[in-house]
């Protein structure tokens, strides 16, 4: 089972920062997880919320602000994280956030960014997956060279999974452990979020989960021995 650092090792450093991802490397993470959004001027940044309020105390909407206008928030550009992943041979799971005013533009721009680095990605041997809670976004990625992950918060969404990888929350897996083997029998992989408790890490490992996403990669690594 692989361990991905969820927004970096962000119990040590602020989420989605270069320091958080460097800490994830030191903590033995197999890969990085990040959320991405488009700024008003088309920059792809690593950012979870629709605004800067939670992280900075000042409310600026990401989709309505230029990269320079977001200077207080000091967002990390996605390509900087991609370069870090390539250089350190770390897998990368990228979540496109929805709903957003620009609709599917985030997937289009992400694929452009990945295509520009395709030869470097191939040479590094890293595995890049693109994730979303939006079924429509996942379907848009159907013909891309990168595998997609359909993230779900409720078992009802299992009926419409269009992706080769299912991304259930740990709360779903706890209630339905057989889900992992069911997905594997269908030829699908399973990525579970967000797994922070040692007993949940061991539980996922015993079930044969392919990837867990954790805020605490060092703790997860320790739980696996």
Provide a descriptive summary of the structure in words:
The structure is a single chain. This protein is α/β, with parallel strands linked by helices and 225 residues long. It has one domain (2-223): Alpha-Beta Barrel (TIM Barrel). 36% of the residues lie in helices and 21% in strands. It has an eight-stranded parallel barrel with strand order 1-2-5-6-7-8-9-10, surrounded by five helices.
Summarize the SSE layout with pairings.
Elements: E1 2-6, H1 18-26, E2 31-38, E3 44-46, H2 53-56, E4 76-77, H3 78-88, E5 91-96, H4 105-116, H5 118-124, E6 128-132, H6 135-140, E7 147-152, E8 165-168, H7 170-175, H8 178-185, E9 189-192, H9 198-207, E10 211-214, H10 217-223
Parallel strand pairs: 1-2, 1-10, 2-5, 5-6, 6-7, 7-8, 8-9, 9-10
Antiparallel strand pairs: 2-3, 3-4
Helix pairs in contact: 1-3, 9-10
Short description:
The protein is α/β, with parallel strands linked by helices and 225 residues long. It contains 10 helices and 10 strands.
Q: Judging from the principal axes of the Cα atoms, what is the shape?
A: globular
End-to-end distance: 12 Å
- CATH fold name: TIM Barrel
Number of strands: 10
In the predicted model, the low-confidence regions spanning at least 5 consecutive residues are: none
Beta-strand portion reads 15-25%
Q: How many distinct folded domains?
A: 1
Q: In what order do the strands lie side by side in the largest sheet?
A: 1-2-5-6-7-8-9-10
Order of helices and strands: EHEEHEHEHHEHEEHHEHEH
CATH architecture: Alpha-Beta Barrel
The helical percent reads 25-40%
- Counted by DSSP, the helix tally is 10
User: What is the average of the pLDDT values?
Assistant: 97
CATH class category name = Alpha Beta
